[in-house]
């Protein structure tokens, strides 16, 4: 797991982390836009329309994926929060579900193309394969982030059930979401030194960030707080403008919260270590010996599937005889692949008629894709609005005539 890909030097600590998932989402978006524009230029479509579609897809995709996640996990993740509305918009801890993206993106793109009187079938064919490329890159981000994990993959002939069932099975570190779920499901055991007990008597694994905390690492906000207070005193002494003083006061307030939280984490770590008759470093070392059981790398399976589907749909685009079929086949093929993917994932509950919500949506999307293809058969082979893009003429030149695209 590498949830933080790297840190930006000389940047305040709260802004220094470059998250792996966000970085791969950037690659997914920029790569998908580039591939779509390249495809558009080959068939002489308007690349500006594709760029606009890309930005609409970015916004609608994030909103739709977040909305799907919030609706799905409202009772367990949001309803009991002190401020549920704030929790809905706080995506720093993650919380996106892929199917929510296309469910909002596709209608949004159709509305944009209809309002601008562009060919809906043609431009959705152009951009459809890139959605699979983007999904593939985003799944690599899931793998680095440690979410969307697969089910246990152990050698059934191993009495301890610890050996990998497949050479490429992966294990997640102590405190990871996959390990916590395996403990909750009774699939692994932990020593009592790495457990803490609720007032109800329920035993839970110690939080990962608390176990890994060191005084040196936690003192960063304390150091920044001291420097910010000194800067505020100096600004007030020299009569700095009000905006500067207010900015420093807000910064100090945020650093005070982070310092208090870090002190609480260190106090809990000290108490857990004392209860286990271990030093804090011994407790930290002990936790690093306990990983999750081997699991299927479902994220990498999905990423490979995305690349394959991208190649299939991109090839179909250039060999198709009817406009509009790429979108229909994308919905069908990805939905079928997602059904198999969900069968080996363990993170999604089966709370939709014995299936996960993603499986249920996949069934609906297969039917939608079939209906879309049947509808396309009732339309002309080529969309009348699919005309080649003609750049504006230079001064003194005669504008060339647009032709129906192929």
Description:
With 406 residues, the chain is mainly α. The protein has 2 domains: 4-151 and 296-376, no CATH class; 208-287. The chain has helices at residues 13-16, 20-42, 47-72, 74-78, 84-89, 100-115, 120-145, 177-184, 208-211, 215-237, 242-275, 280-287, 298-319, 325-344, 357-376, and strands spanning 4-7, 17-19, 195-197, 203-205. The strands form 2 sheets. It has a two-stranded antiparallel ribbon with strand order 1-2. The protein has a two-stranded antiparallel ribbon with strand order 3-4. Helix 7 runs antiparallel to helix 13 and helix 10 (215-237) packs antiparallel against helix 11 (242-275). The longest helix has 34 residues, at 242-275. The radius of gyration is 26 Å and the shape is globular.
Defining traits:
single chain; 406 residues; mainly alpha; 2 domains; two-stranded antiparallel ribbon; 15 helices; 4 strands; 60% helix; 3% strand; globular
Q: Can you lay out the helices and strands and say which pair or pack?
A:
Elements: E1 4-7, H1 13-16, E2 17-19, H2 20-42, H3 47-72, H4 74-78, H5 84-89, H6 100-115, H7 120-145, H8 177-184, E3 195-197, E4 203-205, H9 208-211, H10 215-237, H11 242-275, H12 280-287, H13 298-319, H14 325-344, H15 357-376
Antiparallel strand pairs: 1-2, 3-4
